[in-house]
Amino acid sequence: GLLSHAASKKDYGNNLVDALEAYLIDKGDYIPRLEHSFRPALANRLDFNTAGLVIGLKSHRGALAINRALSEGRIDKYYRAYCHGFMECH
Asked: pTM of the predicted model, to two decimals?
């Protein structure tokens, strides 16, 4: 039930990107006034109400490495669907 990033003004502060940024600021790993070219972000996202892993990018160097690995196919994605009940086939 958490958005990856704000879809409207009402979502500011209530999404994964803002939570990641606040966490890194609290830890001292990200100081916005000292960083002029990078902002914490997500390498991927999930559809709303979908469970799974999201890769958070907390540094420019890490972002380059993760994005390169994704584009080169070195990070695998797996999807699993759960069904309940019976489906009638004709």
From this structure: 0.78
Q: Mind listing the pLDDT tens digit for each residue in 63-87?
A: 999 999 999 999 988 888 888 888 7
Tell me the CA distances in angstroms from 7 to 27, 38, 84, one per residue in order: 26, 21, 32
Backbone angles phi, psi at 6, to 5 degrees: -65, 130
Side-chain half-sphere of 68: how many Cα atoms within 13 Å?
Answer: 6
Taking alpha carbons only, the member of 46, 34, 38, 33 closest to residue 5 is 46
Cα separation, 52 vs 48, in Å, equals: 11
What are the C-alpha distances in Å from 6 to residues 20, 67, 73, 77, 85?
13, 22, 28, 24, 35
**What would the pLDDT profile of 19-58 be if each residue is shown by its tens digit?**
999 999 999 999 999 988 999 999 998 887 788 899 999 9
Count CB atoms within 10 A of the CB of residue 55. Answer: 16
